[in-house]
């Protein structure tokens, strides 16, 4: 088995005022919360966004595990649509001590480079800060964090930092090298 060194960076915001919003892109781009837990839709987003950048952790999850995860209080999926077509998503997860993690964030390959990502990240981060407004029993958010790694898109780190996230940890670990699964062969441009 071949391994590769993967660098993982953890970033955070510690106040809502840390958020530096991006301008909304031109055109008909909308961001909507997926309020009905749908394992099929969430798996579609996960595989479609992460297929070319080696997101594999959840591909083996059975339907019941997807449903259980999505039904947890404080888990939200916000989807960006470009003229009615899913373009990307942000998944939020409430954690202990009034912390919210941006667990997944990204765009389908066809929608990258169109200024949708900064807008979606801004919107998703704002929703992380006001998560307790939508969930009875959650404390107001005190910290929003995320991680990105050297396998993610080349503009990921820059986008996070431009939105006001600050680096707080860096780790390098050897991981098994896996091929990008993609939703189906030939779906991504070379």
From TrEMBL:
It comes from the Bacteria. Residues 39-190 form the N-acetyltransferase domain. This is GNAT family N-acetyltransferase. It comes from Streptomyces levis. The lineage of its organism: Bacteria, Bacillati, Actinomycetota, Actinomycetes, Kitasatosporales.
